[in-house]
Amino acid sequence: MEQIFTCPVCGRLLTEAPGRYFCAVGHSFDRSAKGYVNLLPPSPKGDHGDNRRMIAARRMFLEGGWYAPLLDEAERMAAPHLQEGGTVLDVGCGEGWYTDGLLSACPLAHGFGVDISKDALRFAGARQSAREGRLLLAAASAYHLPVADGSVNLLWNFFAPMATAEFCRVLAPDGYMLYAVPGPKHLWGLKEILYDTPYENQTVNPALPGFSLAEQRAVEAEIRLDDPQQIQNLFLMTPYAYRTNGAGRARLEALTHLCTPISFRLLLYRKEEGSAGV
Question: Does 60 fall in a domain?
């Protein structure tokens, strides 16, 4: 499997060895027992990203298959560009559910995942694709990717920050980016419980510098949750867990079932000729 991770100190390509990665001038980074390498620069604030409780909730919810319509449609859009293999980079890969699904649908592709949450990467490292050596993981920021220029065939961004210039830099000249965002009415049934005045999600402007929009599709479905624990898992994996007051939380905790639409937009971009990022 060709390596694309680079040294966060000097920018040189990393070489993988048993238990570690190293560059040509001797900078070395241990690979944890959980299967990822930490390529984040030191920070006085310590670890970043989603906390363990949010990650565990998202993992349990996604494993229930409620977002399978999104993953299935994303696989259909991505597969034609990976029929002969290639390199996939999942930015903000989280616990790896989407990454694992894509690699299962594209058996010739090789995957790399980055996330700033080490707790999330511990879950991702336990997945089948990681165990088979088809997924290498690193703790890293979307805005400072430790990834070689032009080394990625398909960049996969599901609800992660949009670092347009960095994404353009790491993509090959004929590379693609698949971007997933929530639709206006996504989780409307949940919002009706949490808020007195629910609000629609803002529509994302599809224009991105350095990219041309090749295709876009909408994914719409309705889900019904009859398990109070799964209702809580859904809530905890969303930003609403940080924004909801006590009254909204109390209403949610009293629910025994929840019906809500799920709504997503999938936007497939092609890197424009001559665009190199910065």
Answer: yes
Q: Are residues 6 and 65 in the same domain?
A: no
> Please, which residues have CB within 8 angstroms of residue 204's CB and are 6 or more apart in sequence?
181, 265, 267
What CATH number is given to the structural domain containing 236? 3.40.50.150
Return the structure tokens found at 235.
């809530």
Are 5 and 64 members of one domain?
Answer: no
Domain containing 23: what range?
Answer: 1-31
How many CA atoms lie within 13 Å of 125's alpha carbon, on the beta-carbon side?
19
Structure tokens at 245: 């007051």
pTM: predicted TM-score of the whole model, two decimal places: 0.94
Q: Exposure of 185 by Cβ count < 10 A (0-12 exposed, 13-18 middle, 19+ buried)? A: middle
Are the beta carbons of 177 and 154 closer than 8 angstroms?
Answer: yes
Residues 6+ apart with CB under 8 A from 153: 81, 82, 86, 87, 88, 109, 171, 172, 174, 175, 176
Is residue 277 one of the residues assigned to a domain? Answer: no
Residue 260: strand, helix, or coil: strand
- In this structure, the answer to whether residues 101 and 211 fall within a common structural domain is yes
What is the number of domains present in the chain?
Answer: 2
Q: For the segment 88-129, what is each residue's pLDDT rounded down to a tens digit?
A: 999 999 999 999 999 999 999 999 999 999 999 999 999 989
Is residue 88 domain-shared with residue 190, that is, in the same domain? yes
List helix spans (H) across the chain: 52-63, 68-78, 97-105, 118-124, 128-131, 164-170, 188-194, 228-236, 240-243, 246-253
* Residue-wise pLDDT tens digits, 11-34: 999 999 999 999 999 999 999 998
